[in-house]
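chain below, 600 aa
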Amino acid sequence: MKTRQAAVLSLVLLILLAWQGSVSGAGKKDDGMVKSVIAVPPLALPQVKIDRVDVSNWPKVRILATVLDGRGAPVEGKGIVKLDVLDGTKKATTASKLNPALVSFEKGQPLHRRKDAKMGARGDVGIGLGAVVVVQGYASTIEPLMQQRIREAAEEAFKPLAKGDRANLIWYNDRVYQATGVRNLDSRLVDVESQEVRKKCGDARREARAGGPITLGPAPGKDTPAVAPGTDLCGLLADPSKPAEFAKNQAFAGAFPRLFNLGPPFWDISRYCGTPGGALDGFGTFAKDEYAKNKQEREDLLLKGAPTDFQISAVDAALNLLAKDGKTSEHLAVVLISEGRDGWAGDLSTCAEHPPAPCNILDPESIVNVGRIAKLSDAKQMVERHRLQSEMRRCIDKEQVLTRRVALMQKLFHDKAQQWIGVARAAGIRFYAVGLRRTGTVTNPYDLERLRLLAEKTGGTYREVGDGVPAVLAVKRTMAEVAGQVAVEFTHQEPGEVEDAGPSLALRLSVTLDSKLERSENPGTQFSSEPTLVPLPKQLSLWQQLKDVAWWLLVRIQELVGYEIYVIMGWVLAIGAMLLALLITWKLLKKVFAKSPKRV
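prediction:
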């Protein structure tokens, strides 16, 4: 029955989303994203992709690339037999006369005695990493064995990080938690929405922006040096072992995973078939009196514009960390370890306990049915109760109670995903996801497709783990991909321009892998990346450089002397310049109109 229900939900959802994409996406470039929620093409392996191109020191070029073999495992430099950097504006995807390589490497060594070229691991060329690992930590429907496997996967995620890499952990259930470096908050994961954390993190961020000594961090000791000036104590942590330790001990709790925070707030009864049982951490039970009071308090705070609980999602929290504290010189990544579920985890059971009209007449627990069933013989009572439950579930399916709600949530996810993908692309952040798939109706197909969409639309990778399979291997491969890219450096000797794009650079990589790694039908085949286009830095003229220096000096003078004195100095200099100009003009006129000496 559960399998049939999941199939019906998925089919109706597919039809609704296809209709939504054709109507609301007409004339838009991004209408494919609606369809991608339910139909993202599978990952083609082996795979080569360019993660970033740095031309800030043009004509020096630095490329960061990911190479995956036929199993989806990241390939280190020694597994690459040959690598060519090509002009991305040309159609040829391998080095040839039509598209000669800008620089070539064989087994990591540059060809043609290129002393300016270098190939190695990300860390070898000084590129840092800023990563936020997002882990589901709700308890409802998550068995103890599954909880342990999630803990192990979360702990494993931080092991590949090297010295100089920075990271943090977002643990979500009814609440959203993260690690901090603030004194007295640095020994556990803290609730990001608590008043204490909000205040201390606000103070810590102001102190970091000031650029002076950090006073809010832990006291330095023998093995712990003082925190460097400008450090955001509520951002990415320089010691990845701390969040790994917290993941080992953090409790699973709650039944309202806030991965995306879709739909009405949890206290809005319209999102449930009936009043759920149980409680939500920090809010209270679903008992009418306490519930109504807490609901009113939060609505009053929202009207005042005050910060309230249960507003932020785990994805928002991760993007906030990277957008505020990530560096442009770092490779930035959000790693999701989740089944993709969002909102009330007990929708199906709640609808069965509180069937909506007209299905409520089939509820075995209704007064009418209880009285009627009691008159039957003991043998028939169980049969009749089971029949009514089956009929009620079929009625819920027929009325599409849950399907309509899911279609609405998918539309809300589509709108939010557009914002998240836009922010990620603008900030150079990539999503990577490990989907935890479980059989039956526990994991819905659209839950996992949401994770896949975020990953593949931002240039990351999606991996899926089947029911009962430990997620550690998939997390290992994902983190090896996040932390272990191949870096290429060289000096571009023939800068060019692309039509209609202004001065820019388009590059493509062509890679030949060791045949032992490929596991493909055609070992030794060259694999190429999609072309990547980046704007080149503008070459300023001498006059423009002098103007920039002059403006910089004026701004510095104003900062040093203050605005009022700066204005007075401006007037004095202007009047002085006018007097000097008048004096020079008078001298010139006097010389021109002076009488000529008489000839003898």
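Confidence is low (pLDDT under 50) at residues 1-41, 495-501. The radius of gyration is 31 Å.
thats it, cya
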